Amino acid sequence: MVTFYRRNPLSFRLMAAILVVSSLFTTLAVGVQLYTDYRRDLGNLGLRLSDVEQAFVPDLTDSLWLMDEQRIRLGLDSIVTLPYVSHARLLTAEGRLYTSGEASNRGHESRHLYVLGHQDEKEREWVLGELTLLVDKEEIFVSLQQKLWVVLASQAAKTLGVTLVILLLLHFALSRHLAVLARVADRLNLNHLAQAVRLERRRHDRPDELDRLVDAMNNMQRRLRQEVAELERVHALNRRLSAAVSASPAAMIIMNEQGQAEYVNPALCRLLELPESRCLALDWPGLLERRLSRGQQPARPVGWLLAEVRQQGWQGELLWRTGSGRPCWLLANLSLSRATPDDAGHLLLVLEDITGLKEVEHQLSHQRRYDHLTNLPNRAMAMERLETMLLQAAQENGYLAVMVVAVPAYKEVSETLGIVYGDALIQECTQLLNAGLDTGCFKARTRDDEFLFALPFGHSATAVEACLQQIKDALSRSVCLDNLPITPGVAVGVAIYPNDGNHPDRLYSRALSAQQRARSQKEAVQFFEPEIQAASYRALHIATALKRAVAKGELRLYYQPIVDPRTGDYEGVEALVRWQSAELGWVSPLDFIDIAENTGDIVAIGHHILREACNQVRRWQLQGRDIRVSVNVSPVQFGAPDFVASVAHCLQEAGLEADRLKLEITERLLLSSSETVRHKCEQLAKMGIRLAMDDFGTGYSSLSYLRDLPFDIVKIDQGFVRHMTRNSRDKALVRGIIDLAHQLGITVIAEGVEEHAQVELLTRFGCDLMQGYYFSKPVPADQLFSEKESSSCSD
């Protein structure tokens, strides 16, 4: 029984509840029944007393009136024989007492008094005596008690029987199945979800609660199997992600929404040279805020970084010192990740070491402002410095001498011994000038054989004369090149502020004109004079003739191949414009391109070049030669509102695919960094046209251009390539540019390749394509492939 109870406690609790409720109802029913019987017996008692009053009281009254004692006693005895009347007592008016029966002292007795009176003929009332009856209710209560036990016994037996029947029904209909379900649920775990729950019972047409419970448990198991499978998939994915994050070269920190670090990957510890515990203990948002806000006025409020991250994320660069004290540049990207919209989210901080890129960018920035051969400021920086010096001279009411110094021997040395010796001559001249000139004179190298000097002075020109003498003395000394003593020579043109102009470009151009006069007249020094401006007439003549050059068909395209060094195949060609004027003869692009840009004619010329180049490539395609063509785009031409449409028109007119065309853009165009430039570049890229950054590193190089604009190609300027076999800095820069471009998925073309050693070194660095006189000089279209074929035959 105990075992049964332990197995079926619910049934027993139900049985107990039934017993209690049944007992309560039984007690209530018995009470009602006994109370009803009690009221009925009391009613019978009342009837008996009423009989006494109606039958016996008048008789006793008559007996008293007649003073018939025998009759009185007989009447009392008769009353005592009535049910519930145990004692009768009659007290006459004279004080005589008659009794019948026995009086008891039980608690259930009650007394009833009757006054016996008589009315005579005169209607006078006479009190004859008092009749007192003692009524005993003991029998009523005894009878009720007997009935109580009988009813209780019968009801208890009935209730117990019904309860046992219900208990058995519950066991067979419910409890045993619940026990089965309990055992199934107890054995249920993630490894045993495939077995369906079944009960040993017939399933009805209309499912009952047990059927629904079984279905619910089976559905629960099915959902659990699905969720377990999903969890296993997610856990597997998390393990892969965790392994990927741990093995990632990028340093990562996962933080809660308040910025407390919860996870750091090994790459972070290696990058910062700190143990994991130290990295986890750092207040990263606060640390970043302090580093970024250092020196800013007004100071930013605490928490500005997290507020910005919650809105749009944050990215920035910062200088960091590792655990060993080594400084490094980090690119930080802080973002908020939420699994659901209601999720508080986690902060993800990704740190990338960009020290190498910063060093390359610094080198490129240095190259942008300094000449790589002499380490002197280049022309761009010279113009900036001249503007500053002019402002200072204007404020001090002073003068500024701008001197353009040419080395006449450079051209002869380069043509005779080679460009390498020409560069060596320039380096020797730089050392001579640095040693021979005072430090107060600003020095720069503006072109191959040209230096620029700027010297502020007062109202006396003595300092200028002394400086010019120092220049002449320095460049009059012989230098040894290839065991040959060579005298550089000197030709100096001088322009004075404010006499000859008040703008850097004006002073430079006039000093350049004076220098050209000095060179042409074999003089050492030439101050600018108004008649020197006559040389500008040629420029005007060029500008006038150039307007008719396109219509007269004087502009011709020459093509220089772009070669794959591994196969020797022509990957493409660069279209270069040449001008043979009927009036001026052959005019160098260096002479007319700048003029065309200044007059705006470059737009029409550029469109002509683009159209002719597309048509020529299409003609080559019809001959079975599939090749790309590169066309240089002037900033003025690119800025034309209809530039993109004109490119599309040229392609459509020639029937040429867009991917056969490459447009070369100089860094000068990118200086505006306007949305218009970005939009046009994106339009061209969507058309399928490839974009190349020309002369990379010589202008205003910025890594942001490669990151933000859709460039496919970077062309390394020939100035780097020319000296890379003998200059370790140039070699490092070339290699850095190639590696950087490849990391960004950009193809690299090296320009100005003239030596086999350059080809070998560039190939070892992984340069994709090359272009230069080593492979071919620019030639007309009809000679391009004939030269290649003849070269192949000779090989």
Automatic annotation (TrEMBL):
Boundaries of every HAMP domain copy: 172-229
Residue intervals of the EAL domain: 539-792
Ranges of residues in domain GGDEF: 398-530
Positions of transmembrane segments: 12-35, 148-174
Domain of life, per lineage: Bacteria
SMART domains: EAL, GGDEF
NCBIfam families according to UniProt: GGDEF
Protein's name in the database: Sensor domain-containing diguanylate cyclase
Organism: Zobellella endophytica
Lineage of the organism: Bacteria, Pseudomonadati, Pseudomonadota, Gammaproteobacteria, Aeromonadales
